[in-house]
Give the backbone structure.
Amino acid sequence: MIKVDSTDITDYLADEGYKVEWYDLSYDAGRQANGMMHYNVVAEKYKILLTTRHLTQTEATTFFTKIRAGRTYSIQFFDPFSGTYLTKNCYRGDRSIQMKWDRTDSGILLAPVEVHFIEL
């Protein structure tokens, strides 16, 4: 289960679900002339990478309506690193969508969409 601003969007996702990345933010990281690495972690953050299943035009419009409204989002997701559900405040990355086909007998079908939510 994954929610964007308390709206469950699980039904739109591909069978593989979603991917969770947990990464360190650092400053002044790099190697000195003698090869010694210095790495100053200032925070740990999450990125949630959603991939939808193939969507009809109607489904895509509904899906994007659910994630279009704001600049920041409250994302509730299962964190496989801790084995618990977390809620993180995130911003949304770029979106793109590709049309697969438009048939008069069955309508428009769109390729899976990728959307990334990055913790603030």
User: Anything to note?
Assistant: The mean pLDDT is 90.
